[in-house]
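Example 291.
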Amino acid sequence: MNTLNADLHCHSVVSDGTLTPEELAQRAKAQGVTLWSLTDHDEIGGQARAATAAAACGLDYLSGVEISVSFLHQTVHIVGLGFDVDNAALTEGLQQTRGGRSQRAKEMATDLARVGIQGAFEGALKYAGNPNLISRTHFARYLVETGVCKDTYEVFRKYLTEGKPGFVEHRWANLKDAVRWITQAGGMAVIAHPARYKFSANEELALFTEFKGHGGMGVEVITGSHSNAESANYAATALEFGLAASRGSDFHSPEESRTELGALPDLPAQLTPVWALLANRIQRATAPITH
Ligand code: AMP
Ligand code: MN
Ligand code: MN
Ligand code: MN
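Predicted structure in complex with manganese (II) ion:
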């Protein structure tokens, strides 16, 4: 069960990835993934295409999303898995969360212009497959295109992050709301890439405690952005908080991503995989064999 090649975190052109849901499904299949989820940022507009494409190429599928949340002045990402994609409160909540991205992008461009980088709003928009979902990733691509930086990793080191040119603080969804939208739509809320946040030990304790209190049930232990030591650390956290463990590459693009779809270590054997608790939410490519 823990050796299943599940990839429950990636992005398509519906948010800040460069592949379509169909291309991702085929690529996941080719990489040996058997259970897949497309988790675009703050948007479920790609879910029907992803589920159809998964079925067509023989992949089991869980609906997915990655919601941007503001918690203690940082942005935290909450992945939702296995929810009902037609749920009205979730749809409405995501729409609210997306709102404000255009205004933020204009402010980011104004800030970049102050350090001599012109035309960044229009430049970033060109890369946004979904204009309502203009993100820092699209700015990063523009800064690479114009030769300001050699790759998107350098962009995030020098620009667009706290204290650097082009960073604009933004108010996303509340933790409580995001967890509720997901769980009340029948899904499971999962804390994404926990090692990426810059919380103190007490702040992190608050995040996990409040998340659980609101009904959150999972944490990404194995992700493309964790070192082995970080995975081991959050495996212990999952056990300590009684959380199920998830696994996902956070793949965005063949050109940019360091972790390929499905190319991740197995979940540690002592953890409960999220897919064990979501068995009845999985859209099976083939009917399970019953005796
Ligand atoms: P946004 O939702 O517009 O704030 O954009 C956040 C996205 O930027 C993430 O989902 C990643 O795809 C991308 N990203 C890549 N590297 C970093 C980094 N070092 N810090 C923050 N975001 C990054
Ligand atoms: Mn992203
Ligand atoms: Mn994320
Ligand atoms: Mn992601």
